[in-house]
Amino acid sequence: MTGQMERDLELSPEGNVKLKLLKEKVDPYTGLWIMVLHGTPGSMLSRHRHYGQIYGYTLKGAWGYIEHPVWLSKSGDVVHETPGSVHTLYIDENHIDTEVLFFVWGALEFLDKSGNTIYIEDWRSISMKYIDYCNKNNLPVIDITYPKQKVPDVEFKHHPSKMDL
Amino acid sequence: MTGQMERDLELSPEGNVKLKLLKEKVDPYTGLWIMVLHGTPGSMLSRHRHYGQIYGYTLKGAWGYIEHPVWLSKSGDVVHETPGSVHTLYIDENHIDTEVLFFVWGALEFLDKSGNTIYIEDWRSISMKYIDYCNKNNLPVIDITYPKQKVPDVEFKHHPSKMDL
Amino acid sequence: MTGQMERDLELSPEGNVKLKLLKEKVDPYTGLWIMVLHGTPGSMLSRHRHYGQIYGYTLKGAWGYIEHPVWLSKSGDVVHETPGSVHTLYIDENHIDTEVLFFVWGALEFLDKSGNTIYIEDWRSISMKYIDYCNKNNLPVIDITYPKQKVPDVEFKHHPSKMDL
Amino acid sequence: MTGQMERDLELSPEGNVKLKLLKEKVDPYTGLWIMVLHGTPGSMLSRHRHYGQIYGYTLKGAWGYIEHPVWLSKSGDVVHETPGSVHTLYIDENHIDTEVLFFVWGALEFLDKSGNTIYIEDWRSISMKYIDYCNKNNLPVIDITYPKQKVPDVEFKHHPSKMDL
């Protein structure tokens, strides 16, 4: 059994990449959420602004930002995105299916063409999507938060064993 | 000379508390901004959601959240606000002028009565307010960021000496 | 009742400053411990190396590092200490009793004159000192950790109410 | 060209796993260093204590801690190690060559059988090992720190282009 939840969630209301949350790695105390973003060549994550820092590590394939046409992240590359940065992520057409491990602190604000807010994604919204997905597909709603002190308004039904060592 | 910028900025479009940014403590790499919020008894910071964690330390006076009527933070108290929490800050009527040191990571999203976004405050927006304030009042625009690697679209004219030891 | 534990702990085996831990602010997940260091003019915290970052905010008085003779931190100043920095803290002779709020991540390694390790202080060792102090003085051993998921080998007997909002 | 430095450094004075530092990912401001630890089945990283938090993500193979005989981390698993934890890492005998991506904040203290300090590894010591390795092998000493503000006593000769976007 792996640490990835085999559940493909939609991250963005407009993009067509998907993500897997990592088991037990949504942290309601620091706002960190860890996930593997994955997509086929040519797929996109629509334009968004970061309100916290991000580290990405490319597991396979290649991806970039439309706003930075020269730069491309390939297998084994690490990237740090600064809070306040705005960009549109794409999976490169000339490579294979792509997977990127992301450590995201805080929120992603998806933007329309005029720069207005469409939607804000954070540890809570992504947890809610995860719970909805499990309920719709008759999958167990395993607690993905860590540390385990109860969050008042997020309801998990199954509690995995301790992760930290 | 103290570490506080003697420049009272408006944090919120609707509230009436003010803040002083701390010298050299806006961090464009982690999204941290450090400030002293201050206000007279009865003043408010309008309803907002956090998209990052916050630590507060009450320097003097007393304050609380309207949504948590029993709890009051007094001189020497520390508080941690979790990402995703929503509340309205008030300065207690029965105490003196209040000062709170805040370490803020990420963004504050100010909300209207229906829960819609009015305005989002982060390290960049607060830096821009600071620069505007300095320009309007003929004050030197000292670089308040740390570490000092240049941020492409934020323009500081004066650079203080190194802070870290 | 304030957020400070009225319990003066010895931070260093050789120095003569003291510290108060802040209530509920030892974090076993990130390694953060928050404290108010205090001392009379002329007192010292012996030479040490940091293995994590630190933020300090001077509440009153003035202090500096022997290794940086010009620099002095006064009321309202903020300082960031980088991981790996080595220095000896002193309370200035020409000022009043001094108090400094410190956010410490990770460990302090106290060093002898040859640079060898005397002692390493971290969230766990300082929690143990706190428990010892309480037991010796018949004070309740209140859980100072946050978040509250149990740490296997640290035993608190009293659990305060929830701090985060 | 990938984000990994093709330079195998010894992490521990006693173990026989190796590591690759990730390009531009030693952070002197927060104490973070990012690396890929790799080893053949049966190899070890000797007993050590953490003085900061760690996240690990297993890229391939399988590994565990001798002190926790049941637990094994496999491809796709994530682990959080709490500050203060002590353990001995081993690469599982029944799997292939193993690679683990580690985000390490602060220091690792390697311990002898009596629990005494043998050696402390942090962002600075690992940077020094990297510089030594490059000099001995006539490889360019590329600046692996980020952000790029100069660190006084660490000397890099080549500066790569900007990483953050």
TrEMBL record, chains A, B, C, D:
Ranges where the ChrR-like cupin domain occurs: 13-105
SUPFAM superfamilies, alphabetized: RmlC-like cupins
CDD domains associated with the record: cupin_DAD
Pfam families: Cupin_7
Gene3D superfamilies named among the record's database cross-references: Jelly Rolls
Protein known as: ChrR-like cupin domain-containing protein
